[in-house]
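Quick review question:
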């Protein structure tokens, strides 16, 4: 593989990670400063981004898969379950955590998913406990404690609703990752994620119709931020990440994709001026360290490092 192709791959994956991380911070600004309803944003984001991803598949990849995925009823049922309990659940819980807290904490709590998958596999006796697993779980516990308490043993530094939604986001992302594996073995990820977004967006629109919104209150910058969240923070970020896999190894893309939580923390602290204590920075370092350990794992058979790869290959939050 030539150097130019690899440079292109590095550019694509780094851009994707930065867009993902920044997208959460922009969503926080929409919730807290422009009074955008979380239900409306999740619905709109899923429907538009899903249509855009399927459009990419139609014009640049194998367009026949877009309809073929519905010809097998078992696959169709799996896709509907994935869209509702996977895509919609992970999108909604992540955005709700941002609304009640901030993008930095929400993103870091969502990255508990690999540790949750470790625990799930251990409980199901599908894997044995290794020293790497112990180190990973220890970093998660220490990191979460300092992130959520800033070193205090008497009070939390993050609102309880934000913590609850954030932990639920990690749980749903773990389900999302495990549930998608059989689908990705048969169809392109753009098809699976695109349809899952549309399914999730359509389901939520039945409860919170996107057209029931006072658009007259939108300012020009509101549309600008919304466009960033939907187009750059979702569609382009996902597309760029998938394209980078053609030039880089999954290990390299997973490692560089770990810039996402760092981007979320930095933009939250320095752009939105959210306070972040010294112990919270230490907790952040522990959680990012956990991500890097999984990304750098040399064992190709490791289910936990594979889960991180799947998280990234499917990432659209």
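Suggested answer, residue by residue:
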């Amino acid at each position: 593989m030539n150097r130019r192709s690899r440079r292109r791959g590095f550019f694509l994956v780094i851009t994707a990670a930065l867009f993902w991380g920044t997208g959460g911070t922009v969503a926080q600004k929409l919730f807290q400063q422009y009074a955008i309803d979380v239900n409306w944003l999740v619905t709109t984001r899923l429907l538009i981004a899903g249509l855009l991803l399927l459009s990419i598949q139609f014009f640049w990849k194998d367009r026949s898969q877009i309809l073929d995925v519905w010809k097998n009823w078992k696959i169709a049922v799996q896709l509907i379950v994935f869209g509702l309990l996977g895509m919609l659940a992970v999108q909604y819980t992540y955005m709700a955590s941002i609304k009640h807290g901030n993008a930095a904490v929400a993103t870091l709590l969502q990255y508990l998913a690999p540790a949750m998958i470790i625990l799930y596999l251990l409980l199901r006796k599908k894997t044995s406990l290794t020293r790497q697993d112990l180190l990973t779980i220890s970093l998660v516990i220490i990191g979460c404690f300092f992130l959520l308490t800033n070193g205090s043993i008497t009070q939390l530094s993050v609102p309880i609703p934000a913590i609850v939604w954030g932990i639920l986001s990690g749980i749903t992302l773990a389900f999302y990752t495990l549930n998608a594996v059989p689908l990705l073995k048969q169809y392109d990820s753009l098809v699976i994620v695109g349809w899952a977004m549309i399914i999730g967006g359509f389901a939520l629109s039945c409860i919170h119709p996107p057209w029931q919104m006072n658009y007259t209150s939108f300012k020009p910058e509101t549309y600008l931020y919304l466009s960033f969240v939907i187009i750059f923070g979702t569609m382009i970020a996902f597309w760029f990440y998938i394209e980078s896999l053609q030039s880089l190894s999954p290990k390299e893309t997973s490692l560089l994709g770990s810039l996402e939580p760092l981007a979320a923390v930095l933009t939250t602290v320095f752009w939105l001026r959210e306070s972040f204590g010294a112990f919270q920075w230490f907790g952040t370092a522990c959680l990012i360290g956990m991500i890097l350990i999984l990304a750098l794992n040399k064992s190709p058979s490791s289910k936990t490092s594979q889960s991180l790869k799947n998280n990234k290959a499917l990432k659209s939050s």
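Why it works: The mean pLDDT is 87. Residues 3-314 form one domain.
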